[in-house]
Amino acid sequence: MRPHFLGERPAPELRGAITGIDLQELSSWPLARALAWSIVENLNSMLPAFARTGRTSVAASGNGLRRNPLLRGAAEEVLGLPLRLAEACEEAAVGAALLAAGRRGSGGS
Fold this sequence. Notes:
- The chain is mostly helical.
- The chain has one domain (29-105).
- Helix content is 46%, strand content 6%.
- It contains four helices and two strands.
- It has helices spanning 28-46, 63-67, 69-79, 91-105; strands spanning 58-60, 83-85.
- A two-stranded parallel ribbon has the order 1-2.
- Helix 1 packs across helix 3.
- Residues 104-109 have low confidence and may be disordered.
């Protein structure tokens, strides 16, 4: 499976594909698993080599991973490392709030 259903940043013309499918894979579980794996494999292919060496875990954030055990499992399998999810949910909002608080605390508005 190629998960480029909306393209990719460097190549917006890319499109997704499902190939080699037969009647055994033509059900929701194998298709969902293949999609989860392909998403993570695509992400892994974009990581620089140094980001994959010497690690004991991978810091992860976002509701896609937080709310989807299948995607989390695929990430851990493909990356070969356990995931560490951020403590706070809605990480972007928490980060924005911390940034705003830091600016206010340093005299900014």
